């Protein structure tokens, strides 16, 4: 019993001497996470990059109301739009060659390969899937935060970027004099 009292007193004394925890600067934390997710969003492995893209846009969707206007502008111009542009470039320059699945062994003297669905049998198709995730994420952000995002200083300069990108995606040629930034 006496040991319990001493233990309790020691705990109270230790608690009174603890330094209060520092407040976390969430903007630095968010931007650190966004930076890592943006880099992973162009990873060669489709599962990694698609997970990173989903995570980035889910995080922005869930925590967007906590971001200031300047943080939103930074998110759009440092992470979201550059990710769209980079992923689009990687998709357009990726291989269109069909892959044959990994060789699993042989049967009756012939190689047996793992089946790959026709929608994922080229690098370009897998990058196109990533583009769809990025565009879907942007659409969700616009749907959820449009009235707030409209108030941003640079928001209207992002409209031509998105419009030009969408025009390119459906096959229209954009004049070389047109600048996305």
From TrEMBL:
Keywords: Membrane, Transmembrane, Transmembrane helix
TM region positions: 161-180
Every Mon2 C-terminal domain range: 19-159
Protein name: Mon2 C-terminal domain-containing protein
UniProt-listed InterPro entries: Mon2_C (IPR032817)
Keyword Transmembrane helix recorded: yes
Pfam family, one: Mon2_C
Protein's organism: Zea mays (Maize)
Keyword Manganese: no
């Amino acid at each position: 019993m006496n040991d319990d009292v001493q233990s309790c007193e020691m705990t109270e004394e230790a608690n009174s001497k603890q330094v209060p925890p520092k407040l976390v600067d969430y903007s630095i934390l968010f931007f650190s996470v966004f930076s890592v997710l943006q880099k992973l969003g162009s990873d060669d492995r489709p599962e990694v990059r698609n997970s990173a893209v989903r995570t980035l846009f889910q995080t922005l969707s869930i925590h967007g109301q906590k971001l200031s206007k300047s943080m939103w502008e930074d998110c759009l111009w440092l992470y979201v739009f550059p990710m769209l542009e980079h992923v689009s470039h990687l998709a357009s320059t990726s291989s269109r060659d069909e892959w044959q699945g990994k060789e699993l062994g042989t049967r009756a003297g012939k190689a047996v390969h793992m089946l790959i669905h026709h929608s994922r049998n080229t690098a370009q198709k897998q990058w196109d899937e990533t583009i769809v995730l990025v565009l879907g994420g942007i659409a969700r952000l616009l749907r959820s935060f449009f009235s707030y995002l409209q108030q941003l200083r640079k928001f209207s300069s992002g409209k031509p970027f998105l419009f030009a990108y969408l025009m390119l995606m459906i096959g229209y040629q954009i004049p070389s004099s047109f600048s996305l930034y």
